[in-house]
Amino acid sequence: MKISVITSTFNSAKTVRDTFESILRQTHTDIECIVVDGASRDGTVDIIREYESKFNGRMRWISEPDKGIYDAMNKGIKMASGEIIGFLNSDDVFANQNILRRIDTEIQNVDCIYGNLDFVEISSTSKIVRTWRGSPYTKGAFKRGWHPAHPTFYARKECYEKFGGYNTSLSVSADFELMLRFLEKNNISNKFIPEVLVHMRMGGESTGSLKNILIGNKNILKAFEINEITPQRFYTFRRLIPKLINRIKHH
Question: Which of 22, 13, 18, 17 is closest to 5 using CA atoms?
Answer without folding.
Answer: 22
